[in-house]
Specification:
Shape: elongated
Distance between the termini: 38 Å
Helix content: 55-70%
Pfam families: MMPL
Number of strands: 13
Subcellular location: Cell membrane
Largest sheet: 5 strands, antiparallel
Membrane topology: Multi-pass membrane protein
Structural class: alpha+beta
Number of helices: 21
Oligomer: single chain
Main location: membrane
Protein name: Membrane protein
Amino acid sequence: MTRLITGYAIRRPVVVLLLWAAVLVGGFGVGVGVFERLTADVGGVPGSESDIAQQRLADAPPEPVRITAVVTGRPATDPAVQASAAAAIAEVRTMPGIAEVSDPIPSTTTGQALLISVTLAPGDDETEAAEAAAARLHRIEAPSVVVGGGPISDQEFNSQAQQDVARAEALSMPVVLVLLLLIFGGLVAAGLPLLVAVVGIGGTFGLLYAFSLVSDVSVYAVQVTTMLAVGLAVDYALLMVSRFREERVTAPDVPTAVTRTVATAGRTVLFAGLTVAVALTGLLVFPDPFLRSMGLAGAAVVAVDMLAALTLLPALLVLVGRRIPAAKPRTRVGVFARVAGLVQRRPVLTLLATVGLMGTLAVPVLDLRLSTGDPRLLPTSTQTRQMWDAFGTHFPDRTAPADIVVLASVPATDPELARWQDRVAAVPGVTRVETVPAGPNLTVLRAAPTAPPEEAAAGETVTAIRALPAPFEVVVTGNAARLVDYRQMLADRLPWAILVVVLATLVLLFALTGSILLPIKAVLTNVLSLGAALGVVVWVFQQGHLAGLLGTVRLDSTHLTVPVLVGAIAFGLSVDYEVFLLSRIRERWLAGADPQRAVAEGLQRTGAIVTSAALLLVVVFAGFLVGGFAPVKAIGLGLVLAIALDATVVRMLLVPATMTLLGRYNWSAPGPLRRLHARIELREAEPAPPAPAPALIR
């Protein structure tokens, strides 16, 4: 199959380069427009009660959009500050697009701040009006003036996404280039993976822009898909170029070496890409548009990287392959074979120690609390975050948990509504209820809860309100209600998503190995490393341990995008490495090596590649730890840990230990499945004669 895909690239390399150049120019030329179409909304469940309520609110007359200014640094009674604020307020009131400006409200908590609220007039020019008003308010004569809310906060989320991508690429790309130079020892060989990565990024932007034309694209999608595009491109190109250097040892003719590379490592890239795509398409099981779009976009990005590795890279190798030196001869017993030998001497002890380590790291997952987040997700340099901090210091009475929004299909004057409102006010966890007419037959009741939306108490309050009998139709929404519906959606759909991903992975790994036990072992070990990575993420971001080192604070919850995205991406990448390792182990076993020796030789042959690929991916994902969004930092940390654990603890310790204990049962399968595998088998190469057994592992 791979020969059919890449044959044309080998025969017509210049044409293939021109086609990919067009993809690159088109992707960056058009795709950057996606930054103007991003949305920060996540966590919706179509068809849920909260979603139905949100749609009804959207059909009702829109609520006023407001921006808020907080003036700090001097006493609220300072005459100079009051005069400057009064002058600014008077000028803002005359601006087009401004409906109302409040008088300055002094802080009763500290006495060191003034609060000014600006209501925007409905219309298409809200952003322009907000920016003009903010510019004038910033000129108030005070040590600090922060303005946030409404279109200003939306713009900050979008610009933060753009800055994070640029910063991550600027930091990670030079480091990746240096590492590639050290790995390959030559500029040409090192530059090829980066070139494929750049093409992958261009293709990613183009795909995201295309998705934005038919669906919402989240601000998080840019960072996540970009890091995935870079990581996989470097991963696949590293494998292909490394195999090309091996083939040059016995095939000095470049086209022949490229053909052999495609027939061996190219098949592995195809298979590995399928496993990552399958893991990401598992997100399609969820009705949440964000997760579904991430699954589609992620799978499409994998397809771009895989296609580039199988077409663009062979074309480049044909053109510049003569400048890439052949690989150096392998030592008979390398460091990875020695590690395997040590593990094989104490497989049970190694198994217990590694599982114990992984389990300990995963314990904080038991405290996982999902939320839609708040301005603490943004860096302290943004106006929105500074506004949040200023409110918490000077106006804590105005930072109550977000309201539970109740929509009653009845006029506000209906006497039954007043009686039902009293029942809502009597629900445990509700402090007050305000009524706002929203139409001739629609009334909004805003119930103020005592607990933040992410806490269980807020969910219990939502459930209690929904359970109240009413003489008219009632639907409940708000952040707490959305979280209740989202958690229920996860509880309903997560088992199906896991089933889809696990079954597909088992089938793909069976096609590779012909074994029943090895695919099951691979799934279990990958779940261990994933659980450990998520446990550390919860420990750092939700519980606040060492959060300051990553430029964030204790968030008390985990953004609802983090666990599912880290799970899908990390699982796919982990199976990637499983494919690299098992294909070589099976090759040595088919060549006649005994099970222990096959494991040691397979680990030795792939150890350097997997370690190098993991190191490069860690650098790529670590670039996003310096970004601004806390969820993206959390995703980056989760993927860094998952990859690092998978390439070290799992591949070097857990896999040799389990395969040693299984022995010849590694490759066992019932007769019908063996015959099926003979027809669908995917082998990386014809087995070579086994090398003499190292004394260490005899």
